[in-house]
Design brief:
Length: 321
């Protein structure tokens, strides 16, 4: 828990914590063998764009929120902040309030407030400043995994009256912005899973031809889908095996579950497919009720698409001005 000790510091006070608000960075590596997943930001592109706009280090921690973000009051010297995603928010000053634009920097002075009201037709948004949140690191990452209580703030999501200290403010910072609207996607592309042969031919056909719907039973750990039942013709349960982010398991009821950033590292449901890395950002931004249609691609195509994804991100970063 990062509670500021001196009132001479620069800090936010949380007036409203929002829904599932946590610190995140790119996550922690090479800990699957002790049952700890990567965690990290759900939407990597929005994370990268945010830190690039603010001229922060590539892996600087950010505040991630879902659906409704926090309401924060700032105390200290002037700083700049930016929000990425598709988010509605207000900046409240002594002179009144204004509606903010995502991917654009704004000044904050002592007593100013940020009210992050909601994400728009998306799930996750991100906030950071031209400085660093003064938080602890665990196994090389500040990402909070609330399922395992790992990370700063005792591994818990934000709560009201939490105080967030800011250090290393970049005093030579120039306000910057990016004109960007995230795109939509017609299909979620996948590669076949290690247990693809467990399922009937008709079910494999349904998996790629019919729509699935994102249910409300979705969080940072996984996304449960509703749709045609996927018939297992070999065994609905297998010996527990290692899982990776984006893998799609089929439960004994025939429903798909997509493992997300805070997923368990092993599981005993057969795996029909895995979402490719290039589509993961847009997958996690799908709200409950959204339709998903899967498209099969080869491993080679998945690798090429990920290279293109990184090139697109680099191109967007080059457009920041």
């Amino acid at each position: 828990m990062n509670i500021m000790k001196s009132k001479n510091k620069n800090f936010f006070k949380v007036l409203r914590s929002g829904i599932n608000t946590t610190y995140q960075d790119l996550g922690r590596d090479n800990l699957y063998h002790i049952g700890i997943p990567f965690s990290g930001v759900m939407d990597k592109r929005n994370f990268q764009l945010l830190n690039s706009i603010l001229q922060n280090n590539y892996n600087s921690p950010v505040i991630e929120f879902a659906y409704q973000g926090p309401h924060l009051k700032y105390f200290g010297d002037e700083i700049f902040f930016c929000i990425s995603g598709n988010v509605s928010f207000k900046i409240i000053t002594k002179e009144g309030s204004i509606d903010g634009n995502c991917y654009q920097c704004y000044s904050l002075k002592n007593g100013d407030e940020i009210d992050i009201q909601s994400t728009n037709k998306s799930v996750y948004g991100y906030l950071s400043v031209n400085g660093t949140f003064d938080i602890d690191y665990y196994w090389g990452s500040c990402s909070i995994n609330t399922q395992a209580n790992i990370g700063p703030n005792n591994g818990k999501k934000f709560f009201n009256d939490l105080e967030i200290e800011i250090i290393n403010i970049n005093n030579s910072f120039n306000k910057r912005k990016l004109d960007y609207l995230g795109g939509t996607i017609q299909h979620i592309r996948v590669i076949k899973g290690t247990n693809f042969h467990y399922f009937s031919n008709s079910s494999k056909s349904k998996f790629f031809k019919e729509n699935f719907k994102v249910t409300k039973l979705s969080d940072r750990m996984g996304m449960r889908l509703d749709g045609p039942k996927i018939e297992n013709i070999i065994d609905p349960n297998i010996k527990s095996e290692g899982l990776v982010k984006g893998v799609i398991q089929i439960t004994s009821d025939g429903d798909p579950i997509i493992m997300l950033s805070d997923h368990g590292t092993i599981g005993g449901y057969p795996k029909i497919a895995t979402v490719i890395s290039a589509d993961y950002d847009r997958l996690v931004q799908l709200t409950p009720g959204s339709n998903i249609k899967f498209k099969d691609v080869s491993l080679e195509d998945a690798e090429t698409l990920y290279k293109l994804y990184n090139m697109e991100t680099d191109n967007l970063i080059s457009q920041i001005k």
